[in-house]
Amino acid sequence: MKKSFLVIPACIAAFLLLAGCAAGGTGAGSTPQNAAQSSAEAGTAQAAVPTVPQEYPSGSASSEEAPSSEAPVVYFTSDISAEGLVKIYEALNWTSEGKTAVKISTGEPPASNYLRPELIGDLVKKVNGTIVECNTAYGGSRSSSAMHRQVAEDHGFTKIADFDLMDEEGETEWPVTGGTRLDKIIVGSHAENYSDWVILSHFKGHAMAGFGGAIKNVGIGISSASGKVYVHTAGTKTKGSIWYSDQDAWLEALAEMVKGFSSHVGAEHVVYINVMNRLSVDCDCDGHPAEPDIHDIGILAGTDPVAIDQACVDLIYQAEGNASLVKRMESLHSVHTLEHAEAIGLGSRTYKLVSIDD
């Protein structure tokens, strides 16, 4: 039986830091990840669920707001297991109508924190999904199709489902409307083959976006290699380095890419699931991520990518040991992705968080 876990307004991350510090959350220094970490450790560790304050410091844009009955629901479970993942998917009461893509990160070798097949396999089979990815634009072990397929095999994904590199045979362009940075998105051509999407993301830090969750998994993950450059450089080029000097501009482009994706496939054809485990400051594109300072939190699911990422951010701000990840997010102005996403109509930063735990 579902029960209400918490009903909160979303808030600006910079102000939530005050509440997090007041709660006594401080992080120890990061250490390199143990490459021998087991799949079970990556998928099942849990801790008590942090709470998000109902009152916010003076100046918060959301401090006077209350969630309406129309605020999107984000479901939560503390059960980070294969069973918990299926259960939270079922809470969405969503059924695919055609061929279903399950978008994950295959993870950069040798020791990244990608979601293990043992954790996601039952869900992928339940939706009869095809695991999908695109090649990277920064080099590494997943920059060519042959190498990327080997990584997918080595990490166990080809044993649980069909695997599709969507840009292996080219790319296609879809339009974006209502943005300021992009007028198109460039995705793997095989994206046209799927009518329904499960965006299955590992929430964690990121060296360029501050954090990576649902929006990052779509905005960069579904873009082809040239499409990744296009987003990272705020629509200014499709070849060369992904580094760009205007941080806010690229974060805005990231949100606009997801708006183009959602508009093209239809928002009703997409669900989003974020797993908050192995909460390193580093992304799964880093083969040697820092060891997490924060205990695993849980799994969140919803139909609004802005709401689900905002909920994860809010939980990070209330977690013990959050200092290093909060510093990473704030140093890169990561909340601006959510601000712009809401401004262009991708979703809502105000949400209702509902626990499905008995």
What brief labels describe this structure?
single chain; 358 residues; alpha/beta; Rossmann fold; nine-stranded mixed β-sheet; two-stranded antiparallel ribbon; globular
How would you portray this structure in words?
This protein is α/β, with parallel strands linked by helices and 358 residues long. It has one domain (3-20, 67-355): Rossmann fold. Helix content is 31%, strand content 18%. The protein contains 11 helices and 13 strands. Strand 4, helix 5 (145-154) and strand 5 form a beta-alpha-beta unit. It is globular and about 50 Å long. The model is unreliable at 1-64 (pLDDT under 50).
Write the layout of secondary structure elements.
Layout: E1 3-8, H1 13-22, H2 39-44, E2 73-77, H3 82-91, E3 100-103, H4 117-126, E4 129-133, H5 145-154, E5 163-165, E6 171-175, E7 184-188, E8 196-202, E9 204-206, E10 210-212, H6 214-219, H7 225-232, H8 247-265, E11 270-276, E12 298-302, H9 305-317, H10 323-331, H11 335-343, E13 351-355
Parallel strand pairs: 2-13, 3-4, 3-8, 4-5, 8-11
Antiparallel strand pairs: 1-13, 2-12, 6-7, 9-10, 11-12
Helix pairs in contact: 3-4, 8-11, 9-11
